[in-house]
What we know:
CATH class of the domain at 3-171: Alpha Beta
Structural class: alpha/beta
Low-confidence stretches: none
Radius of gyration: 22 Å
Number of strands: 7
Largest sheet: 5 strands, parallel
Amino acid sequence: xxxxxxxxFIGYRNTNSLHALAICQQLTQHGYDCFLDDDSIVxxxxxAVILQQIHARAHFVLLLTPxxxxxxxxxxxxxxxxxxTAIASQRNLVPVTFAGFDFDTPFFQQRLAGRxxxxxxxxxxxxxxxxxxxxxxxxxxHSLSISLTVKLQPVSPKEQQLVDRVKTGVAQKPPxxxxxxxxxQFFERAFWHVEEGRYEQGVVEYTEAIRLKPDYVxxxxxxxAAHGYQNDPKSAIADYTEALxxxxxxxxxxxxxxxxxxxxxxxxxAIADYTEAIRRKPDFPxxxxxxxxxxxxxxxxxxxxxDYEAALRIDPSFKLAQQxxxxxxxxxx
Length: 333
């Protein structure tokens, strides 16, 4: 027998955490029981617990943005696992994105293939700048207030305790501000521009995101990368340095700044950053590989070999490290 269900799982990439939280807050005000995985409350929640929450809920609201899609083809990507589970369990799929994205472009077509092609047949909900509450209202009316015939699976008491901790933590968070949501939309437009090779426009959009949200670490990091693509390592280093001032434990940014230093030929500075990245994230094959390359430029072949081998111990399929190791072994006396 079909009925209106009010249980929702919110799927999202961390780059869209503000919109995910804001949607959760709005739906909760309308009487919906929502779950979203939040690492800041319970770090590394087991996959089994997360997937069980999909089976325990009728609706699957998915923030489908360029940054969310970018890593879906990475082996073991958790968001892809979550999406595929929702599709396989025949949840009510409700994709949400921001106004301005064209899902007929190669960027989206390529990533929404195979099992994920089912998302392209769903009714898409668009959020326009400054009209967030109206967009959530339309989402409720058109996609969450429908009668469904769906079998919901029970959750074990032990798993429910973890879920309750997450839900309590989410409920205690302050309301997301409108300017933060708009900043996240500028971030996504910038991300798309850069993916499409429009680096100058990407820098413009990231700059606007930072203006709206001055502590936007990811925007500084990504603007740094866009500067790098424009062969402007000096500006890239400035952005990475500001990102690290805001979040000193961000291993990926140390790695990125190391790359920018390397592009300027400053290999000692690059090695220092790669070393810091490894210290903060010991299982970071890219940082080992990059440090190896800097040692190679300095003709320190033994250190380069050790780093390439370390990268391959972490990821034996790392082809670039394999190639670099073969080349430097031929150089070593």
